[in-house]
Specification:
By secondary structure, the protein is α+β, with helices and mostly antiparallel strands. It has a four-stranded antiparallel sheet with strand order 4-3-6-7, with no helix packed on it. Strands 1-2-5 form a three-stranded antiparallel sheet, with no helix packed on it. It contains one helix and seven strands; from the N terminus they run H-E-E-E-E-E-E-E. It starts with a helix and ends in an 8-residue tail after the last strand.
Length: about 160
């Protein structure tokens, strides 16, 4: 019936493409064991509630030297949350130089269980300010969960004694 080369290609590739599309759709439709459900429902916990820099930044001045980040997490959901990885990223970049890539330092802490209705405070130590011309911020997030908190701070030069 179909004797041209194009017809042979369609006859061979057609069923292959159809099976790939059907397999792809089934992979998203069927629940597989071991796949962690995505916590995107509105009643999920908004975990990162507050980020505090210590020492606290006065309103007109900035921050100099080493500092600590405290993240307060609250589980407002109806179920206990297990195996949470909380990440604090310090990002800094020269704002007037687009060819210079931003740099980051990362600190990670693990929480085995956060019961429903409870809160926990985590301290991330070892952060350091950089040159005052750099834009600097701390981003705290919980891997796999919505809700990211960001704090921008201004670095100052060392005070003269």
């Amino acid at each position: 019936m179909f004797k041209s080369k194009k017809a042979r290609v369609v006859r061979t590739l057609g069923p292959l493409l159809a099976s790939l599309i059907i397999g792809y759709l089934l992979a998203y439709a069927l629940p597989f064991p071991g796949r962690r459900p995505s916590p995107t429902s509105p009643d999920e916990a908004n975990l990162v509630a507050e980020v505090i820099l210590e020492p606290r930044i006065p309103s007109e001045e900035g921050l100099h030297g080493p500092f600590t980040v405290t993240a307060r997490l609250v589980n407002e959901g109806p179920e206990d949350l297990h195996d949470l990885l909380v990440v604090a990223d310090q990002m800094h970049a020269l704002s007037g130089y687009p060819s210079t890539p931003p740099k980051s330092e990362r600190k990670v802490q693990y929480i085995a269980i956060l019961p429903a209705g409870k809160q926990v405070s985590l301290r991330f130590t070892g952060f350091q300010t950089f040159h005052p011309e750099e834009k600097q911020e701390i981003i705290v997030s919980v891997l796999g969960y919505p809700g990211v908190r960001k704090t921008v701070y201004q670095a100052i030069l060392a005070p003269e004694d």
